[in-house]
Amino acid sequence: MAISSLSSPAIKRSHSNIQHWLLPVAVAVVLAALPMFLSSYLQDLVLKIVIYAIFALSLELLVGTTGLISLGHAAFFGIAAYITVLASSDSSASSIGWLLPLAMLGAGAYALFVGALSLRTKGVYFIMVTLAFAQMAYFVFHDTSIGGGSDGIFLTFRPALRIGDFTLLDLEKPLHMYFLVIGCLVASYALLAMIQRSRFGHALAGIRANEQRMRATGYNTYHYKLAAFVIAAMLAGLAGFLMVAKNGAVNPELLSWHESGAVLLMIILGGLGSLRGAIIGAAAFILLKEFYSSETIFGQIAHSWQMTLGLTMIFFVAVMPNGLIGLVAQWKRSRAGKRRLTPHPSHHTETPHD
User: Fold this and answer.
1) Taking the mean position of all CA atoms in its chain, how far away is CA 241?
2) Strand 166-170 relative to strand 153-154: parallel, antiparallel, unpaired?
3) H helices present in the chain, as ranges
4) Over the range 47-59, which residues count as b (16 or more CB within 10 Å of their CB) and which as e?
5) Could you give the CA distance from residue 272 to residue 67 in angstroms, rounded to a whole number?
6) 167 pairs with which residues across the strands?
7) End-to-end CA distance of the chain
8) pLDDT tens track of the chain, all 354 residues?
9) Where are the membrane-spanning stretches (predicted)?
10) Considering only CA atoms, which of 91, 136, 140, 100 is closest in space to residue 118?
11) For the whole model, what pTM was predicted?
């Protein structure tokens, strides 16, 4: 009896963990099976959504977990993309084994520099400093020959991963590209889920809730925020590497404040504080953008897709303050409220018949 009572909490925790991971695993399996049913256009659209989902997850670590609102996150996305192209060989495919870490480390190195300075500020000042650093990086690539100016530069050969004479991954092949991107999304989600459950993640959540109290308990909050800033930048660098490998080209617009604003809208749309919300928000944003920019559906209005998308975003934020991820909880609360208001049949008294 005692053994049974002691093991019950452990069983409940195990059951909770299985339920927590069940949906992400199911989504990963569905995504892996999609190439069998989708056209090349729809596969490309799924790839775009998944890459932006990784990008959104990286910003979620800053905004949703740590409470740091950045308007310069696209700088790390774009810098990694430029590093990928500039470091690639013009005569043969470069190895993913060193090109991907180089792109991520380059984004992380710039984040270490930016974060070391910007994290000494707070609130709106932090937002403006991150925006300033991102715009500085944007103009370096836009106004100089290092990045091909406003036209950008092309990737001559997409990266590959070879072991001896055997090619493990060749990103020129659509299926190889597809499964690498899906694998990176799964790895990014798992990493951030583990961070959130770790002591480091709990410290970041404490900083978001009350940084003053965290300092009073002995935490060096500056170092924690800087570590989160660099990790988020490296994940954004991963997304940048995948984007340039997919498109075969890079231009300065990847570093613009519009890109930073778009990814911020994605996590707001999905629901702040939720990894699943970041992925849902990225998918919803990209699909809405594709929908509103379709001339087949909207004709000439499709050229003004920014206006229609903006109005939709305002409507969603007003109706769903907790984002798309909060819809289920909102629906459950609504049903619970209706059940409380509806009297139970047993509470009615029967009128006696004459």
Assistant:
1) 14
2) unpaired
3) 2-33, 40-60, 74-87, 96-118, 123-143, 174-197, 199-216, 221-247, 257-270, 275-292, 295-298, 305-319, 327-341
4) bbbbbbbbbbbbb
5) 10
6) 162
7) 58
8) 444 444 555 555 555 555 567 777 888 888 888 888 888 889 999 999 999 999 999 999 999 999 999 999 999 999 999 999 999 988 778 889 999 999 999 999 999 999 999 999 988 999 999 999 999 999 999 988 888 888 889 998 899 998 877 888 989 999 999 999 999 999 999 999 999 999 999 999 999 999 999 999 999 999 999 999 999 999 999 999 999 999 999 999 999 999 999 999 999 999 998 899 999 999 999 999 999 988 888 888 888 888 898 899 889 888 888 888 888 767 766 666 666 666 655 554 444 444
9) 21-39, 45-63, 95-117, 124-141, 175-195, 222-243, 263-288, 309-331
10) 136
11) 0.88
* Pairs from 114-120 (Cβ < 8 Å, separation ≥ 24): 114/72, 114/75, 114/229, 115/225, 115/226, 115/229, 115/230, 115/233, 116/226, 119/68, 119/222, 119/225, 119/226, 119/229, 120/222
Crossing angle of the two packed helices 221-247 and 40-60, in degrees rounded to 10: 170
Q: Which two tokens stand for residue 351?
A: 């009128």
| CA–CA dist 162, 217 (Å, integer) | 50
Hey, what are 146's tokens? 């290092």
Could you tell me if residue 248 is left (phi over 0), alpha (psi between -120 and 50 degrees) or otherwise beta? left
User: Do the beta carbons of residue 198 and residue 65 sit within 8 Å?
Assistant: no
